[in-house]
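Morning!

As promised:
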Amino acid sequence: MDLLLSPQLLASALVLGTLYALLALGLNLIYGTMRLLNIAHGEIVMIGGYVVYWASTLLSLHPFIATIAAALGAALLGVALFGSVLRPMLRSGELMARVEANSLLIFFGVSVILQNLAALAFTASPRGISFLDEIVEIGTLRIGADRLVVIIVGLAACFGCLALFRLTTLGLAIRAIIQQRDAAALVGIDIARTNMAVFALGFGVAGLAGGLVAMIEQVSPFMGFPYTIAAFIVIILGGLGNLTGSLVGGLLLGVVETYGVALTSASYRSILLYGVFIAILLIRPEGLFGKRRQR
Amino acid sequence: MNRTAILPLVLALLFAAGLLLPALTTGYWLGVALTFFMWVGLVQSWVILSGLTGYLSLGHAVFYGLGAYVMVLTWGQMPFELAILSAGLACVLLAVAIGVPCLRVRGPYFVILTFGVSELVKFIVVNIEAGLGRAGRLIFGAPLIETLYYWIVVLALVATALAFLVSNSRLGSGLRAIREDETAAETTGVPVTRLKVIAFALSAFVPGMVGAVMVLRTTYFETIHVFNPITSFTIVTIAIIGGSDDVRGPILGAAFLMILSETLLVNAPEVYMIILGALLILFVLLVPKGIAGGLSGLLARRRREGAP
Amino acid sequence: MSLLAIDRVSKQFGGLAALSDVSFDVGAGEIVGLMGANGAGKTTLLALIAGNLRPNGGHISFDGARIDGLSPSAICHRGIGRTFQIVRPFAGLSVRENVAIAVMYGPGGERHRRRAEEKAQAILDAFGLGPRGDDLAGSLTLAGRKRLEVARVMGTGAKLLLLDEVMAGLTAAEVAETIELVRDLKVRHGMTILIIEHVMKALLRLSDRLVVMHHGRVVAIGDPHEVAGSAEVIEAYFGKGRA
């Protein structure tokens, strides 16, 4: 009982929740605007993590800077992917329809490729950096400084994104496309350019998350997948296209998972995660964007 | 020669050759052939559901794994032939149980749902084994590899025959209607839920038995290995590369995979996986009907151009 | 004797009342036309009858038995067939297989695939689609696909046909052909038909009775020519002060 009520557990939940919220935002953006199920999202996180690891180990870059680099690098990767593969496809209607329908399989292939590229390049052994290992005390809470940084930076990034969506023209364009893609094109929104920005943002946020993860955990080539699953759960929970919902849902899932594991045991973590995942998909059988099947 | 007789003839030759193989060679190449026929059995079964209805399952490893688990749990308590059959039936039951809720979910959500179910069952079994105090299980006194080999060839034959029969039956037409337009199909009288569950159950039968036989080959059961998502991924990739419109596809795809894995798997497993991933993407985008479909298209064009 | 009885049916989508208190009968062997501006609720009503949707209130009875709440395949088995506003053929399958599926899974339940294909071919011949049997359904013209959809419904052996804007997008010649086809269905095959149309000429020529809907309610029922010229209908279409 002490454990349950401890601020330690709450802090852990916040760390996890922040990461999940960040990831869900990125995934929600890409799926909301382009209906592409980026199941390789976790691998972007993994890449971001490796960037920070190698940057701080080889180049002795401060992890903060490395994380920014990871985010920017991931954003560039997103732009490159979009520009080279997806934008030409957007022009061919038939090919694009196939991509959407098969986006899951395609991104699954991308995910397998990325995981194994990383394994090939970096070997499968986990690597960790030591960063801000000191403990910070806030009242009765004793938390690692690195975890505190994750919460602060993560939440800042989330709110930054939300501010972008609410307050800028780009954000408005993005929300318009999410709501009604064809109409958005008709009112003059440059779909291709906005989609590119979406990819940059979505990937960049994932890269940032990867950097944050590298601060507190070890990175390995196959670490990405649980994050992808969690992100999916959040966007289903929070509602598609509902970007604020991603923030709330992410924090919620972090809390549920952390407390759930505390109540049962660590080995139940996967059962919990996948169980929730399946339950949500079954409760909303019409899928994420579909209207509630009228009967 | 009558064109419609060619396919059954080729298949008969293939399986006959398969059955004769142990007389001609042993050890390494027998193992390769065994793996080939294993994939044929798995993918032909997968096609019964996913090829015909369009509901792509990315979780078929769950049946392979459950079949293996049934075998290790019953090892020594019943003749292994019976255990194999039980494994198959257990998977049919599982398919019916999860099929009814899961098959209401469509499109990409069904794909990730099946993946999630496979992972969930995996972790449940992991926890059961941990609760029983088992880290892995050994099997002593397993049958010879020749025996197992015959079983796999027979299972591959059964799966191929099943896929062929379903595809050409009334059931197959109904399943195809579901793939084309489920709402219109239902309005035309097709009992969509019932047919989907039947297809799912049929697609689970042979994979369960294959899993049971294969665990006897390795003589070692470890949950993470038998419920491996890479198995599911490979099944889908073989079907997409080979084609899933008729029984040739899985055979061609499995053959292609064996060539690839023979050259790469042992020495450069990551490169093998990367190539597999790339092929999946390539074929999904550019050659959706797979090699078999490509061949058919080529033949059709030849016929049109050079008709005597 | 009424074959189809719609009794105070209503349907809401969230806050929108798509249908309110709709009641009318369709007698055996009748052709009842259903008309109204877009959004009047006509297709919604058809979807309710065919089982694709469930009513929020009221009953629907066919051949004396309640059918609201049954699944679409169950309703098909009772003898009701529908076509769709936007044609929905099984595009990747052959024209013949489209109808064969109806023959196999409709109330007739032909278990033998070969025999089903023979029956399907006969139906295709009757509908002028005979020579296209082997072609992919997706390769037909719009008129062909609409015709195929009616042929598919016939394959199920339906007694009541729900036609949703079968004339939309057709040329004048195709419309004339389709009018004859529909009339033929009643006269030669004894089908009962509920037909939604915007093409007035077709409605007036085919319907024994005409039902006019507006904003989810029935505003007029009766003889086609009387109803079409009535004050309520003109008001519904053009607003007050024009009658």
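The longest strand of chain C covers residues 2-13.

Hope this helps with the figure draft.
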